[in-house]
Amino acid sequence: MSSRSCAHQADASCADCRLSSICLPISLHLDDIDKLNNIVKRGRPMQKGDYIYRAKDAFKSVYALRSGAIKTVTLNREGEEHVNGFYLPGEIFGLDGLSKDYYQSSAIALETSAICEIPFHAMEDLSLQLPSLQRRFFQLMSREITGEQQLASLLSLNSAEERIAAFLLSVSARQHRRQLSSTSFNLAISRTELASYLGLTLETSSRIFSRMQKQGVLKIEKKSIEILDIEALRAISKTAEIILN
Question: For residue 82, what are the domain limits?
């Protein structure tokens, strides 16, 4: 099966998935991958705006994104949406349900997205049989916690320009992990959603993107971003080691 065909096909297996090197423990043997594959649920692709789960839903599963993009959101007291997570293919989401046995945010497809649902209790049982799978899950939990801490630090300490630069560097690094271009990519997240995620106003966000384009740091065409000068972006961010989750 080709990597192109696996992305949206509901019958694609873990062994065939081009993202398995990101999602799965490298040490899993084929027989063990088959065991994991047997508990994974793959439904129809989610369309833009579809909810994978809603805040306060009972926590039952974690999810791996095969293609597309996902945002997680919460509502403030005024009922306004705040974006608190942005996920790309190969990444795991839904871990925020672990602490209280219900999801603390809602997960929504930003575009047509293929998702693997992994029932948590089944994965717990399998992890007892496969120590490497258990270690991988602990790594994912650690990455989620670290990402939240880094995002909180970024929002509280850095200027608007630094936040945008660090966000673009994080997407660049995540693209590189997927063996895709680290300097040219589409952002499924809208400018309004990105401003919410980074704690900025839409006007401030748009002004900074325009300035970076005029300075020759970026080339922007609708949702397409090309990083023309990644060293300049790192200099702006001053925190190139931050990888937002």
Answer: 3-140
> What single DSSP character describes residue 217?
S
In a domain, 104, yes or no: yes
Residues 6+ apart with CB under 8 A from 30: 15
Residues 164 and 91 in one domain: no
Which of 146, 145, 51 shows the shortest CA–CA distance to 98? 145
Query: What is the SS3 string spanning 57-68?
Result: CECCEEEEEEEC
Picking from 140, 170, 190, the residue at the C-terminal end of a domain is: 140
Global confidence as pTM:
0.80
Rg (CA), the chain: 18
Same structural domain for residues 135 and 173? Answer: no
- Per residue in 179-209, pLDDT tens? 889 999 999 999 999 999 998 999 999 999 9
Rounded Cα gap, residues 226 and 110, in angstroms: 20
Sign of CA dihedral 123, 124, 125, 126: positive
